[in-house]
Amino acid sequence: MKNILEIKTIADYFKLRNYEVLHPLVGIVDFFRVDESGYTNKSYDGFHYSCYAIFLKDAVGCKLKYGGSSYDYDEGTLVFMAPNQTIEFGGYEPGYVPKGYALLFHPDLLLGTDLAKKIHEFNFFAYSSNEALHLSAKERKVILSLLDKIQFELEQPIDKHSKKLIVTNIELFLDYCLRFYDRQFITREVVNKGTLEKFDNLLSSYFSSDKPKTNGLPSVGYFADELHLSSNYFGDLVKKETGKSAQEYIQSKLIDVAKEKVFDPNKSVSEIAYELGFKYPQHFSRLFKQRVGHSPKEFRASLN
Predict the structure, then answer these.
(1) At 47, phi and psi to the nearest 5?
(2) Structure pTM?
(3) Strands 46-49, 4-7: parallel, antiparallel or unpaired by DSSP?
């Protein structure tokens, strides 16, 4: 049985690192200041978080497993964890010593703030570890400067400005990460194009097989799994490359296939609907009219 440590509070993680807690809801660990003898990851198979955790890894030799895949950290890598996520350790190279920083904050810190309303917009909290953010040297400096600002506030006596300044800097930190991820999508354009080609091929194969009849309409999650990506990362990749959401992209392909099938006068609209994976023909007709401007029957008649 796997030994998973529950990280319910900031203090739980800081106790593990023999690190002083300055604030009950937020904290930064500087691994350069952690006593290696107190580093006890090796006694656990993984952590389950009840708080947000962001890790800036500056050391190689650490392997993590997330979503069934392993990932080797490179220098200057950011990984994001949201509450109720579990990350497993995949082993360490001999002599491995952690380097970098960890920023942890509890959801309660965000109560009553603007960030609480937008935290779910940062999809990278749901990316897999193999979809981590790889920072350039300049980007790393920006991240470190923001960590310094947060740490500065943590070291001051708590006053009426403390929470606002800490949360504002965390929000700025996340906004920069969003920008850096956009840069990463651009710099990986060739890889992304290959992923889209595979996506197109998977879509074509799906609709030309019996899978729609047996499994129904394909979901975004289905194709993300086939491409070994998290649903959020896959959705963001498709959106940035095509301007469409992954669901819209799937529906566009479905409508293209539907148009070809509607062209066949020997098939009824109900037959076509079932072949495409719809449980109810009226749902197919409604979607077809929304996307094409005509019902399937009207579209067929216009072709004659």
Answers:
(1) -120, 145
(2) 0.76
(3) parallel
Find out whether 139 and 52 touch, Cβ atoms under 8 Å. no
> Amino acid letter at 43?
S
CA dihedral in degrees (282, 287, 292, 293; nearest 10)? 70
Report in angstroms the alpha-carbon separations of 88 from 43, 79, 85, 136, 169: 12, 13, 10, 26, 29
Question: What is the chain's alpha carbon radius of gyration, rounded to the nearest angstrom?
Answer: 24
b/e string for 179-210 if b means 16 or more Cβ within 10 A? ebbeebbeeeeeebeebbeebeebbeebbeee
> How confident is the model at residue 236, as a pLDDT?
93
Q: What is the pLDDT of residues 270-282, one digit of tens each?
A: 999 999 999 989 9
Q: What is the pLDDT of residue 264?
A: 82
Q: Retrieve residue 31's tokens.
A: 């691994």
Whole-number Å distance between alpha carbons of 178 and 199: 24
Give 90's pLDDT tier (boundaries 50, 70, 90): low
Amino acid identity, residue 191? V
Q: How many helices (H) and strands (E) does the chain have?
A: 12, 10
Contact status, residue 183 vs residue 124, Cβ threshold 8 Å: no
For 201-242, how does the pLDDT look when each residue is reduced to its tens digit (9 = 90+)? Answer: 999 999 999 999 999 999 999 999 999 999 999 999 999 888
Six-digit token string for 152? 């500065």
Q: Coil, strand or helix: which one is 51?
A: coil
3-state helix vs strand vs coil in the chain, percent to 5: 55, 15, 30
Q: How far is CA 177 from CA 92, 132, 296, 297, in A?
A: 27, 11, 45, 49
The tens digit of pLDDT for each residue in 132-183 reads: 898 888 999 999 999 999 999 999 998 999 999 999 999 999 999 999 999 9
Question: Which residue is it, tokens 């799994």?
Answer: 225
